[in-house]
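Researcher: Please generate the 3D structure of the following complex. Treat every line as part of one assembly.
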Amino acid sequence: MATTPDQQKSKRYVGTLVGQSTSQEFRLAVAHETIREQDIIAVDAELRRPEDNTAPEKIRVWAKVQRIERLNPLFPAEAGHELAATHTDPFETVLSLSREMVTAVCQVLGAEPLAGSAKGKLDHVRYPPQPASSAYRPDSKDIARVVLGELQQKEKRGLDIATLSNRPEVDVKVDGHAIVTRHLAILAMTGAGKSWAARRIIEQLAAKNYPIVIFDPHGDYTGLANVPSLKERVRRYYAQFPVFEQAPETVVAVVEGLGWNLANTHRSMFDDFFQGANAFISGAPEELKKRTNWLSNYLGNEKIAYYGLKPNLFFLADFVQAVVQAGGREDGDALNQIVEWSGREQLRIKRQVAGWLEGLPNNLRVAAKRLRQMEEISKRVAQASEPLPLDRTQLVRYGGISVVALAGYTGDFQATIYSLVADEIFTARVSDNLRLPVLFLLEEAHNFAPARAEMAAEQRSITTTRQIAQEGRKFGVGLILISQRPSRLDETTLSQCNSYIIMRMVNPADQNYVRRVIETLGEDEARILPDLDVGEAILSGQLINFPVLVRMKPPESKGEREERDAFESLEEIQASLTNAARR
Amino acid sequence: MNQENAQERRLTEDGVREDLQRQPHLFVKLAENALAVAESLRNNYFKNTTHFVTALRKAMQAASQGKRSDPPLTVCKIDGADWATFQGEVVTFIDGGVGRVQISSQAPILLRVGSYCVRTGERRLAERERFGYYPVILGDLEGGNKERKDFPDIVRITAELLGGLSALERTPDLRVLMFHGPLVYLMGGYAGHTPFSERDIDLFLHQYQPVAELGRQLKEDFLHEAQLDIYPRMVPESADEWVKRRVFEPLSWIAYLYRRLIREAHQRKPVPIIAGVVERGELREFSEKVLLERVFRGLRVKGNADYFNQMYGRSDLTSPKALLDRLGYTDTLLLSMLLQPGEFSEPWEIGKYDGLSQGNVSLPGEARTGIVDFAPLKPGKIGFPRICGCYVHVSETTEPVRVEVFSELGPEQIVEAARRTYLYARLLPGYGFPVGLDIADKYAHVPAWLTDAYSKLIQYHLGVSLQRGEISDAEMRRVLVQAIYMTHRDWLFRPKT
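Model: Done. Output below.
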């Protein structure tokens, strides 16, 4: 049976305005459990324009329920203490438990003509809604229209990423343009659904062919390649630490970090060895082949000739060993050859010095081995055999997603690799050598743009990220920062983000930081952060018309870290081992 | 200190002094009294009171141990007052209040009677609790003398009583009906009001009747009894005219409602407990007629009739009344010092109707007055019921509360009422008053001293009633809207836009 307009209105009724009403906030007396925090509601009002004697204009004031207060004034605290002291169930007594005042404090979002002719754009309310007015729950269609705001006229920009948390039937689209140009931060504690949200956004952006480069420290984005629609677009790269693109002192720090501390003699000679080795390996292909064979023969190591020379620590170790061997044997020919190919006269060392340097090759090999181990992990997690291209701009492709797997590397290595890649691409954009715009996604962004740099690598990556955050918009380079420890993020970088997706967050330091840095986040929204469910988020900033509580839609892809039940996995492995043994 | 030692200590003057010092309400009251009494009594007021109370405690102790046969006061322990014993009981609390809405009228505009009905142990909230409130617009009444200060009281007493009767009639399994305040007031003071018109009574009954027919029947039954017995005895000369004009003399109408309440209760098994609970009572009848009467008699028996005069150095402390007049003692003050928490005093029949005698009354709309004899309304066939009372001491930090019941409903009423009063009041040890009455009070009352939260609650519920259309009368709606939103006199008289 069809319902009458009055019945519909009565059904949608949520409460009545009571007390003092202002153009920013009003209070609603509501019935028990008819409303939830973050619900979007509306109040109809009539306003006459100043100095206009025509009929008053009918408007709809939109508001969001910021908090709900429950009070049972008929249940005295004193009685509660007495019940507690005597272990008495209140239901056994004559105390009143049924009468509660439920008041919803609502934040005014804006107003539009009742006919909806403003198409979702909300005007500022300059005169408070009338006390005793009725508030109601608007249609899903109307809510969707208002949440979308002006975006509905620019539908191409919309990314379909969520539904309203309290109204699952209402899709929430956000402004993709704001995300790719003015940066987005996704902030949440572990397990709240950050990567899930990010993957959904990436999938949506990829559908619009936007070039994306993901710096993935944990393999959260490897699953993107398994999404049928993205299969051809996603390329996964394992990262190699580019030894010879570093300053010598950085490599010393790497070697000391992965191997042992260098002796003073080793340290004093390191610069010459490093520069010499770099020159040695920089020859033309034919020349390089000649040098490779010479080194292989001189050191009696066939593997060098077999595998060829690579610009890594293993080569540096072999080079140093050749110098030490030649010096120790006082082999003038060999020393001449090395000096010729390396261009470093300082490498013509005496026997005694060679003795002092004997331990260095081993130390370099230990460090090289550990570095290779990290590379292997990176390769495995990335499920990719392709190393990062030497020309980083190749990562930026129309409709392409490049996932740079950094898993396996320690923080400083990750920061170094990121800053080299990001810096090169950004520079290419600035110099117009790269025509396509790009969006960088930084998972664990607090490692790439930490509040405090403790190592040179971190300092360099902060500088890079800050520069992109501040100037990226001009050069078509956007950022998505994802972090589980917002309070450890560089404040300048975070404050440059104009859009935010904030999910469950229980750490008080993080909550306070977020409240302080993010201007668009209201006090009441910040208050509910610890109570959000997994997958729930507050969208705030330029990506949305006004802050709303949403539930993120699931991405099509899966992350490497979406863990299976450990015990189920164990049983499966054991079963396969047993089968293998039987066979 | 173990219990035995504590008990012994109670019987020493030091022990009494410690007790008094531990109870700030007592200490303050005694200090006030000490300043108010004659100068000759002032110096040793505290010391002599301690001495007197110690002697009383000793006498009571001796009687309880069988060492003397004439105790000045018998005290009973409240046994079995626990929630487990009273599960499944339906209890209704009734309270009336006068709204302090700021208007220019002499009488407050709004009188509210609230009822709170609860079934202990019921976990379904919808089944567990029922609230009702009944607004009466005093300005609408034709009867009653509006210029008299006690006009709101007579209306409130009537409304509360009708609320109680209504609760009893609509709740077949009602076990306890508890009123906030005396079960019956000292009715003599309220004599002489202009009778209510039938229209007034209809206004009352409109809110209270469980079904329309019962309300009409109540009215007709009273008028029938008034014609046969009441008015011929109260106004022999004008009885016919009063009957013809169908007027309801307030006191006889109230007495009739009491009798009706008792009759209805008598028909139930078990008989519901009907009680009134009084806080901060200034009554001293128990002290005068029971406690001190026995003390003076005992002193006379012992040939020590001059005991108080010697103690206070005076010559006029020769009777209970004189002693109470001079020393400012009241029932609650003396019993605070004699009862321990969890005890109640022996019951006594309270004299409520001494002031019922002749008075002048005018009929609605008339200036001339006629003589009316209110003496027939003393307990009897057409009179008020006899009232039995006792004092219950709930906690050390509060004064004992007075519990009143109808004598006619049986001797067990007072014991059962005392048990429940104690149990209900234990939930508010700092207040020492039944929590259900506190709830009804908060729900019903609109006085200025109510906290902001309570007034918000009332506004909220009035608002909900308005929204639901439960108050259909347009004028009533208008007044209630004012009651909700207006707090200042000037606001109310702003011209309508």
